[in-house]
TrEMBL record:
Domain of life from the UniProt record: Bacteria
Protein name: Uncharacterized protein
Species whose genome carries this gene: Rhizobium leguminosarum
């Protein structure tokens, strides 16, 4: 049986899992900033999932095929983006050559498909998450997907997309998470902050992560000084982040509430991915559980 979000969140090994996930997203960004920009804000991430799912065949729709009108209607209907934003996203993906025109059943409609580059990076995203699930229970999901990546992506990704788009826990984990994840590049900044966690004792109201270089963040993620300071100022006003000394001096800290928002979001997302993988691959061969509940 697939892991539940509650089971994952209670597993004391899950901190290492989400830190590894944050590192993976940062690695993808460093290697390919354009493709990683799709994962850098929730709206773009949801639109990317929607596009792939429509291309492969969305589980709630009996047909497959991606074209602008269908994508825009889907994005609006599922409260992902406005018509203008969805249309601009499609044009951007074409300009970046993550989408390309292909022949379709209706010659009056311009059908599109993900390019090899887009599919490879999305497959990498899926395999990275499956590897983390495998590390928790000894399963072999990642190896099975890697053996036939195109077919496995086509089967698994639409299930993930449907569940993610319909999940309140994934789409609205909490105010601080939403602050970062709906801002341009904010998701990457959040991943970076979380990746600095040395540990997470759940009884601690704050966890100190050490000195924070705003210059390093700006240069690494190509974010403006104004945008970065605005994000951190808003998060500090929510008492979600801060410094141990006045005027942004001393060590940087993250609040327990902020960490739990990120933690529970990851648990919900990984549970969705596990359920989708199990539906296609069958139950994972699991080791005897050795998890201990966090206190």
């Amino acid at each position: 049986m697939a892991s539940t979000a509650e089971t994952l969140a209670a597993d004391d090994r899950f901190l290492a899992a989400i830190l590894h996930c944050a590192d993976q997203m940062l690695t993808i960004y460093r290697e390919s900033p354009r493709i990683a920009s799709i994962f850098a804000a929730q709206q773009r991430w949801l639109m990317a999932h929607a596009g792939f799912a429509l291309h492969y065949g969305h589980p709630d729709d009996g047909k497959s095929g991606l074209y602008s009108g269908r994508f825009i209607d889907f994005a609006v209907r599922n409260d992902i983006a406005s018509r203008n934003t969805a249309a601009a996203f499609m044009q951007e993906m074409l300009a970046y050559r993550f989408l390309r025109p292909v022949p379709g059943p209706d010659k009056r409609t311009r059908y599109l498909e993900p390019t090899e580059t887009a599919e490879q990076h999305f497959t990498r995203w899926l395999v990275a998450h499956l590897m983390i699930l495998d590390s928790l229970d000894g399963g072999e999901r990642a190896a099975k997907v890697s053996a036939d990546p195109s077919a496995m992506m086509a089967a698994i990704q639409p299930r993930i997309a449907r569940a993610i788009i319909g999940s309140e826990a994934v789409r609205n984990p909490g105010p601080t998470f939403n602050l970062f994840n709906w801002a341009n590049t904010g998701g990457l900044v959040m991943d970076y902050l979380i990746s600095r966690l040395p540990e997470f004792p759940r009884t601690a109201e704050r966890v100190v992560v050490g000195p924070l270089s705003l210059r390093e963040i700006r240069e690494q993620f190509m974010i403006s000084n104004t945008h970065l300071k605005r994000l951190l100022t808003q998060a500090a006003a929510m008492e979600s982040v801060g410094w141990t000394e006045p005027s942004r001096k001393g060590d940087f800290w993250l609040s327990r509430r902020f960490i739990l928002e990120y933690w529970n979001y990851q648990a919900a997302k990984f549970a969705i991915i596990d359920a989708a993988a199990e539906a296609v691959l069958g139950p994972a061969v699991r080791e005897e559980p050795q998890a201990r509940r966090m206190v």
